[in-house]
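Think of the structure tokens as a kind of shorthand, similar to the way a musician reads notation: each symbol stands for something richer, in this case the local conformation of the backbone. In the example below we present two proteins back to back. Begin with the first one, reading the sequence and then the tokens, and try to describe in your own words what changes along the chain.
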Amino acid sequence: VIGRALGRLSPDDRIVLALRFYRDLKVDDIAVAMDIRPRAAASRLHRALERLRRILEQDEQEVAP
């Protein structure tokens, strides 16, 4: 379920989520890895999580009776 939802995200969303949750990087380290400011990294992470949440909720509604 999560894999399919991640596949529906943009590459940038997948990258920031992978850096945070698979590589276990902190926001400051994500910023360095992506060559962006820490505030931008935090914003991208927040938006990516929101998009992932919406996709998962949408999928849940589609399978619910």
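Once you have a description of the first chain, move to the second and do the same.
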Amino acid sequence: MTSPDALPELDEDAVEAEIRKIGVDLAAAFPAPSRNPLRALDARAMELASSDRELRAALFRFVDVVPACRSLDDLARHLAGFLGELPEVTAPVAAAMRISHTKPGRAALGAAAASGVRHMAHRFIVGENPAAALGVLAQLWRRGVASSVDLLGEATVTQAEADRYAGRCTEALEQLATAARAWPSRPVLEADASGPLPRANVSVKVSALTPLLRPDAPELGQRDAEARLAPLLRHARAHGAHIHIDMESLDSREAVLELVLKLLSAEEFSDGPSVGLVLQAYLRDSPDQLTQVLSWATESRRTPPLQVRLVKGAYWDHELVQSRQHGWPVPVFEDKPDCDRNFEALTRRLLAARPAVRVAIASHNLRSVSHAIAVNRLLGGEDRELELQVLRGLGDELQDALAARRFRVRTYCPVGDLVAGMAYLVRRLLENTSNESFLHEQAIGTPLEQLLRAP
């Protein structure tokens, strides 16, 4: 094992050659857009939303208010109001504006808008509750894809809400662990070099476990969250399940990380359950955070090892706006290539740190995924020692390509109702339609050589 601050030395030409070989192989498994009407339709929608910032903002504002609308007429009025603020409108938008002036027209527009939002929500959200999602999760497993269930819900504001969220997590652990026992054997998904991997996997937000998590008084929020998180860890251990702690906005990150490492350092949890946390590569100080995590993992030698899920990050807009409003230094990389380079450097450090940690690389970027596989192989690791993760609704084709090649792939599956899921849905739409998004570039037909080029 290398030191937490070391980067493995590799022949860069060999790395790039392996990346290209892997990327070409994976891309060959993607369906052609002409044979996939839904993908072609999504590509056109992504291109439209990406090319017009004002339209993109208006549509996302509309999605955000949909749960508060009480009728089709109400939906149509809100949509027309947002579109009416645009400085220029396309022919389809102008047609929608014209029919919004009559009651029958508003009914038709409202119905179309409601159908569109439901379509988007169902693409990303697998069920209203864990029981409703079990069929999808079982189907994924049979296709060679593991899952992590995320119970949608943003930060809580009352103790009662935090109790309800903890109760939902407890129920999800029980239901998933019970149902998963009947799933067929999938050796690739059930073990790595460090030992068995739980079939049931639930992602938890600490900000939803307490209404008291504040950057100016972190200890109070930590104590309150611990009172709900510790029982969840006990429950997961009893059911042989995995709990993954999601990281959210920067203002809660340090308190969450400190709480998780403190709990896992306790003798009670030294031998289970399986637990993971998230590292966000878009943060400029993520290398320092990784040093902290690897130092703890090396010293604790916990079994099973802590899993680190490396992501780019989903709160870029929030962090950028907040820092500019307060005159703070911007904590995120503002240029995508800088973030991508950091992601690759962190990937190398994580892979070199095994077996102190388990590694999960979460990305839809073909270059980032191919890089992780290439580095793992060139470091002498077997493919089964690396987990690759995607988001439901965004990484489906990559997921299937990886599973077909017997990589261990896990899909992050949100569960919850439309109201709870709106903030999540808007973040996913922002990611999907960003002008610099890999998914956008892929959808509009950017050449493979360019998609696999080093950042």
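Compare your description with these statements about the second chain. Strands lie at 146-151, 191-192, 195-196, 201-205, 242-246, 274-280, 306-311, 357-362, 386-391, 408-415.
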